[in-house]
Amino acid sequence: MKTFSKKNEINISKITEKHMKNNNVKKWEPENFELQTTTIWSFPKRGNWATHRGDYRGNWAPEIPRNLILRYSKKGDIVLDPFVGSGTTIIECKLLGRRGIGIDINPDAIKLAKKRIEFSKLFDEPQELRVGDARDLSFIKSNSIDLICAHPPYADAIQYTDGIEGDLSFIKNVDEFVNEIGKVAKECYRVLKPGKYCGVLIGDIRRKKRVIPVGFKVMNEFLNVGFNLKEIIIKLQHECKTTPLWEKKSIEYNFLLLAHEYLFVFEKLEK
Questions:
Q1: Which residues pair with 103 in a beta bridge?
Q2: What's the rounded Cα separation, in Å, for the pair 70 and 68?
């Protein structure tokens, strides 16, 4: 099985030095960036500043963690990404003066992320990247994290490894997937400081022309472990029309292409 099939995207199992080199950085900040002020977010591109690249399939636009970090943390805070992938969140942590902790079950993803934070910035906070399972954050003390930015798999919509044991993106049964995400939610709640926030980007999937509301199922798992819901943000999906074939199928078989994701912002209340 090939992990990535889209043109110009990295097959994470075949990373080369060419992919890992930090090419000459032409700009350190996004152009015309503005902090989002509504519950509709739209980022057509996946970032082209610092060492961000759009070549890791399924990564989120760096504007998302940038907005979360700027709105819900301050310089010197500790930010956790339990599904760090190619390191988007940790790059933003380094740029914005936060200490990032990034975890991924895929050693090759961690290897790539480490290469992408090999740059120097003034007031550089230490960044930590390690192989691990988001369901077991036992190496992190309870009530020690200032912000969580999480972008888990959408069940088996995209598979991120070649079948590493514990990879949640290989769970086809949605109820089983949601149950495992509940374990992630429990750990996130434990490590987050009271009064702090956890942002989770998640999307629905479609099977046999019917929508499976993965987003709201995941939301409920975070609520069930004790989080309160602060915001529901609709993030527009700009790659839902990958080929004319899918547009044709949408009309022919009478279903709509999913063009949004949910960004839930949860709060751990002070006791």
A1: 130
A2: 6
Q: 206-241 as b/e, with b when 16 or more CB fall inside 10 Å? A: eeeeeebebbebbbebbeebebeeeeebebeeeeee
pLDDT in tens, 222-249: 999 999 999 999 999 886 555 678 788 8
Which single residue is written with the structure tokens 């060492």? 51
Dist. CA 131–CA 244, nearest whole Å? 39
- Quick check: 24 and 223 in contact, CB under 8 A? no
- Positive or negative: CA dihedral 10, 164, 119, 101: positive
Flag whether pLDDT at 131 surpasses 70. Answer: yes
Q: How many CA atoms lie within 13 A of 182 on its CB side?
A: 12
Q: Where is 103: in which H helix or E strand?
A: strand 99-104
The Cα diameter of the chain in Å comes to 56
pLDDT recorded at residue 241: 53
pTM of the model as a whole: 0.89
Name residues whose C-beta falls within 8 Å of residue 163's C-beta, 6 or more positions apart in sequence.
1, 170
Q: Which residues lie closer than 8 Å to 2 by C-beta, 6 or more apart? A: 11
Q: Are 154 and 204 a contacting pair, CB within 8 Å?
A: yes
34, 226 Cβ separation under 8 angstroms? no
Residue 141: phi, psi to the nearest 5? Answer: -70, 150
Domains and CATH numbers, the chain: 33-267 (3.40.50.150)
